Sequence to fold (198 residues):
Amino acid sequence: MTEQYRFAQYDALIFDMDGTLVDSMPLHLDAWEITSAEFGLPFDRAELNEYGGIPTRKIVAILAEQHGLNIDVEAFARRKIALYLEQIDKARVFPQMWELVKAYHGKVPMGIGTGSPRNQAEQILKSTGLDAYISVVVSADDVTNHKPHPDTFLRVAEQLGANPANCLVFEDTRIGIQAGKAAGMATLLATEGELQPA
Fold:
């Protein structure tokens, strides 16, 4: 599975979390769908999936402006997050990603760069057991400029003591791939945990 990619040549492997490493995107999108209906915000599952990596508050503000709606961003975000947290322990690591993480654990430093808040990221890592394999996590709380800006991934590389130019980013969205490229890193698309041919 991983031989063709020669992952061992990199200083670090950096993973996005939701939709790349773990199958939490459906849980996020279900919470978005309910909250959008309650707040009168048009809901498009495919469009919202593409915003993966951007914190909820920022997405609500973007969508409200696009649709010319006056929405209480904080109230919306609180409700969406509360609904998501009710389901968060259902998140599972994608099988191919588990195999990769276990195969390179102790061989190549690994970190996570996520648009989720730290408490959500830590809860997922703990409930899935990923916390035993990956100790460096940069969350939405740790940077000001979120994806597609490179800051999240650059911070992970810094904490791992890795040269950004020799890091590989795994991402499932266009915005995440943009962020990895902006950081000067190699990028690999992983859709629902499946590595896509380069």
The domain at 25-89 is CATH 1.10.150 (DNA polymerase; domain 1). The chain has two domains: 3-24+91-195, 25-89.
